[in-house]
Amino acid sequence: QVQLVESGGGLVQPGGSLRLSCAASGSLHSFSAMGWYRQAPGKQRELVASVTKGGSTNYTHSVKGRFAISRDVAKNTLYLQMNTLKPEDTAVYYCNAHIVGVAGIEFDFWGQGTQVTVSS
Fold it and tell me: How far apart are CA 80 and CA 47, in angstroms?
């Protein structure tokens, strides 16, 4: 069983920055991909950023140029650096680990979420 623990959320003013962390219980090499999702009140959960095992990254259009996803394999930790935050970035942010096992069976693991609030 994979455990993911997020940290780093909080209240920040518009234009500010936050860095989210996601500590995994196992080696990041175990995962086919990892990502950050968010869910705002009344909205569906959406993918914010992802990184594959090979290091390819992907961002949703609204955060391109402002957010950066990265990994520290030695620390088994995934990060999301968020700059120039906007009120519309307010949401609960979730860490995700995706595994493609034998016979193509896929598994998803989720953290408990961390609240990010952007407000003046």
Answer: 12
* Residue-wise DSSP of 58-93: EE-GGGTTTEEEEEEGGGTEEEEEE-S--GGG-EEE
Q: How far apart are CA 120 and CA 101, in angstroms?
A: 45
What pLDDT score was predicted for residue 119?
97
Question: Residue 55: exposed, middle, or buried by beta-carbon count in 10 A (0-12, 13-18, 19+)?
Answer: exposed
φ, ψ dihedrals at 72, nearest 5°: -120, 100
**Rounded to whole angstroms, how far apart are CA atoms 32 and 94?**
17
Taking only the tens place, the pLDDT of each residue in 60-84 is: 999 999 999 999 999 999 999 999 9
Q: CA–CA separation, 31 vs 26, rounded Å?
A: 9
16, pLDDT greater than 90: yes
